[in-house]
Each structure stands twice: as C-alpha cells, then as structure tokens.
Specification:
Number of helices: 9
Distance between the termini: 42 Å
Shape: elongated
Strand content: 15-25%
Structural class: alpha+beta
Length: about 350
C-alpha cells in the first residue's frame, strides 16, 4: 500500500467515488486518521484498511452503528472524534430514513446537494457576467445614439448650405448716356427646410460569456429583450412548504426564494439550469452532468393569516415526483445552511 492517501487514492483503492470516501469520514471520523490538512488532505497508511473494512460492512448490509462496532474491534478510534460521531450520526439518521422511504439512497442525496450547490454557484457567476455585459451595452448604446444624432444634425446643416440661393449678376449698360439701373429681382422665397428625423441607434452586438457562449443583443430601447425568470417580487417572497397535515412550514427569519436559490448556488457543481413557466407556477430545472434532472416547482399562495408566500409544491427527480417526506427533508437540509 502507499505511504499516504488522498481522497482520490482511497476512492481508487476501494472502487468507490470520492463522495463516498467523504461520507465514510463523516460517519467514522475517529477511525480515518489524517496526516496533513493541506490541499489535498493526506491520510495515514492505515486509512486504506479502514475504508476497505467500511466498504465491506456496508456491502453486507450492516448499519452505521453495526459498522462502528466492527471498526472498534479492529482499529483504534481517536477519543476527540467520538463526540463528533455521535452528533453526526444523530443528524444523518433522519436523512437515511427519508431517503429510504423515497427510494433514494443517502449517497445520492449527498450528490444531489453537491451538484445543486455547484450549479447555483455557476448561475451566480453568470448573473454577475450578465450584469457587467448590460452595463457595457448601455454605454455603447448611449455613444451610438449620440453619434447618430450628431450625424443627422450635420446632414441637415449641410443640406441647408447647398440650398442657399445666389443673386443674379448685374450687367453694365451699353449706352453712353446714363440710365436708371434696372431693379434687381427679388429672390423667390425658399420653402422652409424641415430637419430630418433623428435616427435611432439599432445595432446587433454579440457578447461572449465566461463559458464561451455568445449572446446577441439589439441596441434599440423600444424593443427590450425579456428574460425568462420570475419577477423580483416573486423572488423576494418568503418560501414555505406543507407538512403532512397541510400546515405551512417556513424558515426562521422568513428566507425568500432568492435566498433559497442562493444557498443551492453555493453548494452546486457544474450543472445546467433554467427557469420554466408552467401556468401559474415557476419550475426551476437543474440538469446534472450525468443527465439526472431535478425540477423544483414553486407557486404563489397565501397563509391562513393572509401572508403572501412562495410554496415549494413538489420536487421531481428525472420527471418522477418524490414523496412529501423526502421534500420536507430536502427543505430542512437547505434551510439549515441559511
């Protein structure tokens, strides 16, 4: 075996994912000794044997407590980690029970939160880049409008100069005796020149985003492009769910929908996301790199006390609705990060 291990080394040794190794550490922190805490974290040589034993116990269908007893018989547990394990095991139990009732493994639920967090983080970066692009577009639009206005004024002035009449020349008399000068013809009145209408700036500008995508914008104020997303009022409304009795459950401090989405942003991996409108509801669709799709459906409603709220009505995974227990546990996991 190697002298030290990283998360990736342990995953390759056990034939599981790095997320699974991290799950081992959370469940049994005292049995997987850390050598250094730099990046990447490195573990002592005995960590490989511990992870192999944990994998074998889970493969036999043993629970976390039963696996802990097996590890205690073969390996030494750090005393400082026992208390942490007790609290983490207590927190993990509801997740595992809900995941089992919904037909989804606890490991899949952890992957979902990690994927959703990275996806939301990518969306935050995209929103920042879009805001900067809009600022640059407004500056370009203002400069183009002023340039075209000056050009129109110059054309009008030049046309007036070209249309100015010239006086007819006066010929000298041929007779030697003086004669009265002929009256000069008065110039005909020229029609009043109407200024040409000012031209509006209308240009198509291509903006390249941080991920290499190209978006086209029209610099014409009369036809702004609408964005497919909920309104600011909808995003700033507190978010709630229903419990099994149909009662409203919210978040202390009245977490708005925008804050709920922001929490998912901070936890997401690379993922594609979009807002869809379905009747009176807004659906937030997240597509993971492995093709799994998660759709969160939100509707606007009022509580019995007359408070306006946004209800997280359902959560579909790969177009299949999850149970109410799974939805409640998902909501609790997100609000705990607020």
């Amino acid at each position: 075996m190697a002298d030290t291990y990283t998360h990736k080394d342990l995953a390759g040794l056990c034939g599981v994912s790095e997320t699974t190794i991290k799950s081992y550490r959370r469940k049994f922190p005292g049995f997987i000794p850390v050598l250094t805490r730099g990046k990447p974290i490195r573990f002592k040589p005995e960590a490989g044997e511990v992870c192999l034993k944990i994998r074998d116990c889970f493969a036999k269908g043993l629970s976390v407590n039963e696996t802990h007893k097996v590890l205690k018989e073969h390996f030494k547990e750090e005393p400082s980690s026992r208390q942490r394990r007790t609290s983490s095991a207590a927190a993990a139990a509801p997740v595992e029970s809900v995941a089992a009732s919904a037909g989804v493994s606890a490991e899949y639920l952890e992957k979902f939160f990690a994927t959703a967090g990275q996806m939301m983080q990518g969306m935050a970066g995209l929103a920042t880049a879009q805001a900067k692009a809009e600022q640059r577009l407004r500056k370009v639009e203002s400069a183009l409008e002023r340039l075209l206005e000056v050009e129109a004024e110059n054309k009008t002035l030049y046309a007036r100069l070209l249309d100015r009449p010239t006086a007819e020349p006066v010929h000298a008399p041929t007779e030697p005796e003086p004669v009265e000068p002929a009256p000069q013809p008065e110039p005909e009145p020229q029609p009043e020149q109407k200024p040409e209408p000012r031209m509006r700036a209308r240009r198509i500008v291509n903006v390249r985003g941080p991920e290499g995508e190209v978006a086209s914008y029209s610099l014409e104020r009369d036809t702004p492009q609408s964005e497919v997303r909920p309104s600011d009022d909808f995003l700033n409304t507190p978010i709630v769910i229903h419990n099994d009795q149909g009662e409203f459950l919210g978040v202390p401090g009245k977490l708005p929908l925008a804050g709920f989405v922001s929490i998912l942003i901070n936890e997401a991996e690379e993922i594609n996301a979009r807002w869809d409108r379905q009747g009176e509801a807004w659906v937030f669709v997240m597509v993971a790199p492995d093709g799994n799709t998660h759709s969160l459906r939100f509707i606007s409603t009022t509580t019995p006390r007359g408070n306006l709220v946004v209800l997280l009505e359902r959560l579909d995974i790969n177009d299949q609705p999850t149970s109410s227990q799974f939805l409640q546990e998902f909501f609790r996991q997100v609000k705990d990060k607020a």
